[in-house]
Design goal:
By secondary structure, the chain is of the alpha/beta class. The chain is built from ten helices and 13 strands. About 30% of the residues lie in helices and about 20% in strands. It has a nine-stranded mixed beta sheet. Strands 3-6 form a two-stranded antiparallel sheet.
Length: about 300
């Protein structure tokens, strides 16, 4: 059983399911969405986050690096990422705290201790535990089954936040331990999906149909990105698919924002979504109205 990496455990979360929740963000996803707000969640292994603004070029990291992969040039430290072994030696010598390793393994009992700390909030608010990512459904299934069994034994409500791009057998293995699925739909256009997400949408739509056929509680989340899928035509295509194929409890329309784009620089990555725009309030209200006119009563803007 492989222990997956976690990038964050968010307490008192109000936007990842019902009530007050503890949301655990696992590292690793098979999609590569251009607007991803958490690019550090895409790879399945730990990574270095480096804050260039904090670096003062003191050269302490360069001096201490056992692999000699850090060089200070023009008063800024540069790390040869392909040769860095993430030994964390440099972290202790960075007086400006510019360096961070993201991704920590949590044995199940250690993770349960964190979850149990918020038991009182779950009981009082009707909340529980949300497993998110990255993509939770592509993590080690043996680990997830054992974790979910122990969470359910405690009586906690379980929500899984998924993009849907994972083998159906993984959903089959976990389905009995999950109360609610937060499920992303980004576009019905397969070619657009391939371009901006890196993979087609056939598997995503197939898994969503499967969960619906099993009678699971499904909340649909639709990120709306101007320049990609924020159009009347795109919304109407999603509406038709949901009406014809899926039983949905709630729908959230999530307007694009640029929060998290600064992480790309910290990972030495290029952000591909510079030309994306946030839909206007008028557009959002129009999309809201399209869903309501088609019989979807529990639909709102925001998470």
């Amino acid at each position: 059983m492989a222990i997956p990496y976690v990038i964050n455990i968010q307490k008192y979360s109000l936007h990842d399911g019902d009530g007050i929740r503890t949301t655990i963000f696992f590292k690793g996803c098979l999609l590569n969405c251009w607007w991803c707000h958490n690019p550090e969640s895409q790879r399945y292994t730990p990574e270095l986050l480096f804050n260039y603004e904090r670096c003062k070029g003191c050269k302490e990291c360069e001096k201490i690096c056992p692999e000699h992969v850090i060089k200070v040039k023009e008063n800024v430290a540069k790390t040869e990422r392909e040769n860095c072994i993430l030994c964390e030696t440099c972290l202790d010598y960075c007086v400006n705290e510019a360096r961070e390793i993201v991704g920590k393994q949590y044995p199940i009992e250690e993770l349960l201790k964190e979850i149990d700390k918020d038991k009182m909030f779950y009981e009082e608010s009707g909340g529980g535990v949300t497993l998110s990512g990255g993509e939770i459904m592509t993590q080690d299934i043996g680990y997830l089954i054992e974790l979910l069994k122990k969470i359910k034994k405690r009586g906690y409500h379980v929500t899984i936040d998924t993009c849907g791009y994972a083998p159906q057998k993984n959903y089959e293995a976990l389905i009995d331990y999950v109360d609610t699925f937060l499920y992303d739909i980004k576009t019905m256009d397969n070619e657009v999906h391939k371009k901006y997400m890196g993979k087609g949408n056939e598997l995503i739509l197939s898994n969503l149909k499967y969960l619906s056929e099993c009678g699971k509680n499904i909340y649909i989340r639709i990120p709306l990105i101007g320049g990609v899928n924020s159009s009347e035509e795109s919304i109407e295509a999603i509406v038709k698919f949901l009406k014809d194929s899926v039983q949905v409890k709630k729908i959230n329309l999530l307007p694009y924002h640029k929060a998290g784009t600064n992480k790309y620089e910290k990972l030495d990555l290029n952000y591909l979504g510079e030309d994306f725009v946030t839909p206007s309030q008028e557009e959002l209200e129009k999309y809201l109205d399209i869903f309501r006119k088609n019989g979807f009563s529990d639909v709102k803007i925001g998470g």
